[in-house]
Design brief:
There is one protein chain. The protein is α/β, with parallel strands linked by helices and 235 residues long. It is 38% helix and 23% strand. It has eight helices and seven strands. A seven-stranded mixed β-sheet has the order 3-2-1-4-5-7-6. α4 links the parallel β2 and β3. The radius of gyration is 17 Å and the shape is globular. The two termini are 22 Å apart.
Length: 235
C-alpha cells in the first residue's frame, strides 16, 4: 500500500479549513456508500455506537435517530472545524443530547474497554499511515463489546489497472489534495483479528470502494447479527 505523506497536524489544518465546504464536493460523492454501510451495520434502538472520523456529521445524525432516546452515539474526529459543523447539524435536528463529540486521535481512543455495540468508519481508515492502521484497529477491538460490529467504507486496493496507478501517483505527489489512498481492507481487518461477515465492492470515478461489516470475536450477539441481516461469513 502507498504511505501517507502528510502529518496529522497538516491533516487537521486542512480539514479545519474545508469543514464548512466539505459537503459541496466530497460529501456529494460519499453519501450513498456511507448510507449503504449504515444499512448493513443495522444499528438498533438502545445501542451505544461510535463513529471514527465523523466529518460533517451526516452519519452521526442518522445513528442518533436509530439508537433513539435509550441509546447513545459517540464521535471522534481530528478536526475541530468538522466537530463544530457536526455540532450545529445535530443541534438543528434536536439530537445533540444523544451524541458526545470528541476532538482527538483515533489511534488512542478515550473510551473504556468493551463499551460499544458498533463502531463505524467511512473514508477514514485509509487516511492513517500504514503502520498506524493496526494501532487504530486494535483500539477499535478494545472498545467494542464481544461480538460487536465494525462497519468500514474505504477505497480498495483490490482493483488494478492504469487508473489505480495514476491515482496512487497523484496521492504521492499531491497528498494535501488527495489524502485517501487505496488499502487492502478485508485482509487488514482479518489480520487485526476481526471476523469479516459481509463485503461488497462499489466504484467511485472508476476506483473500487469496499464496504465491509466485521465482528469482534465473542459470543454476545454473534448469532443474532448473522440471522437478522442474513450476513454470510467469509473465511
Amino acid at each position: 500500500m502507498s504511505r501517507v505523506y502528510r502529518t496529522k497536524a497538516q491533516a487537521k489544518k486542512t480539514y479545519d479549513r474545508i469543514s464548512r465546504f466539505y459537503d459541496y464536493f466530497a460529501g456529494v460523492f460519499e453519501g450513498k456508500y456511507r448510507d449503504r454501510a449504515l444499512e448493513l451495520l443495522d444499528i438498533k434502538k438502545g445501542e451505544i455506537v461510535l463513529e471514527i472520523g465523523f466529518g460533517t456529521g451526516h452519519c452521526l445524525k442518522k445513528m442518533a435517530e436509530l439508537v433513539g432516546k435509550e441509546g447513545k452515539v459517540y464521535g471522534i474526529d481530528i478536526s475541530s472545524g468538522m466537530l463544530e459543523v457536526s455540532r450545529k447539524r445535530l443541534e438543528k435536528a434536536g439530537l445533540l443530547d444523544r451524541v458526545e463529540l470528541y476532538c482527538g486521535d483515533a489511534s488512542k481512543l478515550p473510551y473504556e474497554d468493551n463499551k460499544f455495540d458498533a463502531v463505524f468508519m467511512s473514508f477514514t481508515l485509509e487516511l492513517f499511515d500504514t503502520p498506524e492502521i493496526p494501532e487504530v484497529l486494535n483500539e477499535v477491538r478494545r472498545v467494542l463489546k464481544p461480538g460487536g460490529r465494525l462497519g468500514v467504507v474505504s477505497m480498495s486496493k483490490e482493483g488494478r489497472g492504469l487508473l489505480m496507478r495514476i491515482y496512487e501517483w497523484l496521492h504521492e505527489k499531491l497528498p494535501q489534495y488527495l489524502d485517501c489512498r487505496p488499502i487492502h481492507l478485508s485482509q487488514t481487518l482479518k489480520d487485526a483479528g476481526f471476523l469479516v461477515m459481509h463485503e461488497e465492492v462499489r466504484r467511485i470515478f472508476g476506483l473500487p470502494i469496499e464496504i465491509i461489516i466485521a465482528l469482534k470475536p465473542g459470543r454476545k450477539n454473534h448469532g443474532r447479527v448473522a440471522v437478522r441481516k442474513g450476513l454470510r461469513l467469509l473465511l
